[in-house]
Amino acid sequence: MMDVLPGIKKNNFVVVGRVGMDLFPEPGVATQDATTFTPDMGGSSANIAAGIVKLGGAASLVTNVSDDAVGRFCVNKLHHYGVDTTYVSPVGGEARNSLALYESRVEGHQSVIYRNGAADFEMTQADVEAVDYTKFGALVTAGTVFAAEPSRSASFQAFELARAAGLPIIFDIDYRPYSWPSAAVAEDVLSKAGALSDVIVGNDDEFGFMAGDKDKGLAMARSLATTSAAIVVYKMGERGAITFAQGREVRTGIYPVTALKPTGAGDSFMAGMLSSLAAGDALETAVLRGSACAAIVVAKPGCAPAMPYPQDLTAFLAGHSGPTQFA
Length: 327
Fold this sequence. Notes:
Elements: H1 5-8, E1 12-16, E2 20-24, E3 38-42, H2 44-54, E4 58-66, H3 69-80, E5 84-91, E6 99-102, E7 111-114, H4 125-129, E8 138-142, H5 151-164, E9 169-172, H6 183-195, E10 199-203, H7 204-211, H8 217-227, E11 231-235, E12 241-245, E13 248-252, H9 265-278, H10 283-298, H11 310-319
Parallel strand pairs: 1-4, 1-8, 2-6, 4-5, 8-9, 9-10, 10-11
Antiparallel strand pairs: 2-3, 6-7, 11-12, 12-13
Helix pairs in contact: 2-9, 7-8, 9-10
């Protein structure tokens, strides 16, 4: 089982997966009633990369964008957040960047995701073979990269190349049913990706899905930690998380906030946890830092723009009563 900490502590990540455009109306306003929308960057992998950079790390995104104004908007936003775009390639034809319209409200929250002919699914093995993995400390990806070809084969190739370069593989399950041809395909492919990963983060629904039954999800997370993965984080929403590592089970609570929306929490959690581990913090501290970053994001509009800088995280922790006890 790989010692993942030396790679993570380099604080320089190659992140594989999508970047998209987000549009969101004013807080509390339903999409159908909106007259103005704020555009910004979205996409799980891009959000994770932006979160890492905002917290002081370095991240380079590997993906395809559409060769049009929306694709260029996404690249400009990556530059804005300091994410390296060396391995972001435009593709022509009918491929389009994903578009997410979501509301900054919890009651009646609606998210509408457009991923027909998604540009990021056009990523090829040649795209991932162009990456110099020796420049990085770890590879990070989110499960949607495996939902369609040629991205699926390219992503597994990226895993092989990263492993050959000695990089730990960090995997956010990030199961989005609408991206997959069937639940059966998703279960099989995500389970394969999980077995190849050194750090796995997912919620109880996602582990349950991979196990074929939500009641079996916790056992699957525990099994992965004893057979292949160095760290497995099993998130349970407001009930906290169980982290499995080195034969231990670390149980942590959450930082309660008044949520403005449910989106972006998982991406911010990953960025916060990795940044904390990179800084040399203990695993329990890192998971709690991830939870704090998730709380910050759900209390603000947007995803990438809501990701905290170090001073935001420091201020939040200083002003909060502290995490809940594990339930």
